[in-house]
């Protein structure tokens, strides 16, 4: 039997546990893998380094330590943290391999509370942090839930302008050969779906982001499944649909996709998140041009519909969301000189403004900031005929050292003239050399953490 003092001791050292699920999303290449790698790495170093001064619990030295824990959801792949750290720690550092599916990692953070009530009950508290990486492309599918096959087809054909139309040529030619009333041949459907999927991929390669259905470009475990084999087609809304015809099958697959893929995602993943960070690479479309920039805005607007809980009956019917904080972060801030960071934030703010308003109305706290998860450059100055000008220095992907001023980030959504007058010179840098016993160099990951989980570490 335990004696009283031992019981007292156990009681005092009992840990108060809590649990928080943070979703990390963003379109592909936005920087999700880099962000999660850095976030985990930073937290694992809190006991030995002062690397997170903007996270108040770390600044006040209340974090005892953090460790990885086995994840609870056995159905979701593990986030490849070790592999990511291996690649940035190479003699010639490389960016982590891109991931193509949802993945998850779990950390336990032990901390000393600064709340009187909590202190009374235990000396330390533990928060179990689940971090979920999922493709932003999947959020682009939300509007599909509100559209039948005819409406969706129409919306896709309406969007076939400019670059999209050019890229769609091959698929359109094949589609023109298809008799929608003929008895469906699965092989033929597979062939045309492949052609449609290739079209969506080529849109992405051209710097366009708004692609539907989002799973077609990032199928994850569904690769090759018939539920990802359909495409929009042109027909009148009152058209009689012949049983077993191509149109009949396309409609059925679209319906299956809506129910089994899109709806299931919102039910099983989205509903369980507490906090969300949306990563946005504003620099890539600045580099690519006007069309790419506007297309990214459209894609972001679609993504943000997922946060309009209150006004969106569809989402209300599906689940009762519990996200109470959303952070928008402009990634890769180390690509520009530090005095441009403020512009980067105001540009992002303008991009997400509509969502911000509706989120505020729903009592969801929102914030915007600029970050660099894994710093690849060092800021400094170079002398020029105009005097000393800010610059960044880093190694490009071939390992050559470069010092440059990449350009000014516009403060507001730029018009076409921005690209005619100045534009933006974007260089891909490789990560800085990293020693395994040191935390990764970052910009404001601590500020992001403070917003996302600071209140849970009190
Ligand atoms: N300079 C810099 N580049 C970054 C940073 N984060 C990501 N990148 C670049 O963006 C690419 C895509 O990042 P990744 O995290 O794989 O994007 P994901 O598709 O959203 O997971 C990387 O390969 C890097 O080239 C960063 O903090 N700094
Ligand atoms: Mg990734």
From TrEMBL:
It holds the Pfam family DUF463. Residues 168-195 form a coiled coil. This is YcjX family protein. Keywords: Coiled coil. InterPro entries: P-loop_NTPase, YcjX-like. It comes from Vibrio sinensis.
